[in-house]
What we know:
The protein contains 9 helices and 10 strands. A hairpin with a 2-residue loop joins β2 and β3 (about 50-60). It starts with a helix and ends with a helix. Residues about 235-240 have low confidence and may be disordered. Helix content is about 50%, strand content about 30%. The protein is elongated and about 85 Å long. It is of the alpha+beta class. α6 crosses α7. The chain has a 5-stranded mixed β-sheet with strand order 4-6-7-5-10, with helices on both faces. Strands 1-2-3 form a 3-stranded antiparallel β-sheet, with helices on one face. Strands 8-9 form a two-stranded antiparallel sheet.
Amino acid sequence: AKELFSDYSKFELFLQTVRSNPVKDFNDTYKLQFDTGQQYVRMESFKKDGDIMGIVIDVTSSVLRSRRIEKERDIDMLTGIYNRRAFESILDKIYEDPELIKHSALIMLDADGLKQLNDKYGHKIGDDYLCELVNQVNHISPENTLFSRQGGDEFVLFYYGCNTNEELMKYISALNKMRDRTEFSVENDTTIKIKYSIGYILCRGRKESYSDLLREADLKMYEDKKERNALIKTSISFIIGFILGGLYFI
């Protein structure tokens, strides 16, 4: 401080450095980076008797509090991904740049059998199951992914920025391959498969009605769920028939 106040040019250079890190959405507020962490200050200036006066106020606590509130508003607190409101808001911003979208897809994902899991093992296990599902999906998704929990056991993904539909389908294929193959531990040595139904719609690199895209992907997801349930029932019927047939033979 002594050095800065004794040399106007150094002081002006210091102010320029501070002003080079403005904080978005906060007027006249800047970020200071120290070895011990970050601090935020608001700088105001005014003229008095021909001189320029200024005041610097430490606003770190209010900025951090505002950021925390903003995060809680946008993030699903269970899974750590975006909620519905934030997803739609960010999607609108992405669509403002067609070059950013390129080849894209909207994907609906619904966790299978969550109610039965909650009823059998409790809601804590059900919550852990959803978190693990999100972790697995994040692991195989492309860098340009917008992922949100719509509520309950429903999720929406937006893959974008792929150069070709073939590249895009590679990630969607990975989603298909992962389900029913990843195990989740529920208690002791008991494990279950992570299961979900999906439906997707390719967006053809142009903005379309989000509600229309979501409706179409949702319909395809329920078609997938219906087919999966029918396959399970057929498999169970086959096993029961095989067992009964074996007993009759004996």
